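Box 3.1 A note on notation
Throughout this textbook, protein chains are presented in two layers. The first layer is the amino acid sequence; the second is a token string describing backbone geometry. Keep the layers aligned when reading.
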Amino acid sequence: MARCIGFARRSVKASAPPEPAPSAIRALRQSGPYGNLGPTAIWAAGGLPGSSRVSYGRRVEHLDREIVRLLAADGRRSFTDLARDTGLSVSALHQRVRRLEKRGVLRGYHAEVDPDEIDLPLTAFVSIKPIDPAAPDDAPDRLTHLTAIEACHSVAGDESYILKVRVATPAALEALLQEIRAAANVATRTTVVLSTPFEGRPPAI
């Protein structure tokens, strides 16, 4: 259905874009990132080279988000599998992944480790706040050397940061809390995790 754009009691109907010629479509599929997309999808993805519409638009954004979703669920997926699931050629898929890495969208690929199997069964969240409110806000820098701290989150509320830590025993947790207090000159409040129904889920893309 044609769209109407109003301008002070006048309306202009937006005409539908011309469909690319079949020969141009074949050439574009062979040389470009469009894989097996049809003429309408190619136009939605930004049109033919040299056309008046050159931006990638929503179609490319959708493809990139689909690639990110697939890799977030399984970072070991091969380019062949990703290309098949997204409808792209392997070379086009490879180029997109590299662009996402350069942009910082894909920041790395990691192994998911079972902490119980590496003797780190105790997980806790440690809220910290400075003893001296006038002290510099540099707790993260002071705590980076403590490898038992898995994550550090700046938060709103009474505390300044919440730390996620993993240790082997309650005694190890007690020792870690002493190290945190001494290194960052902070007060701590600790919540011990009893069980973890789920964590590390991929983002809702």
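Confidence is low (pLDDT under 50) at residues 1-20, 27-58. The longest strand covers residues 122-130.
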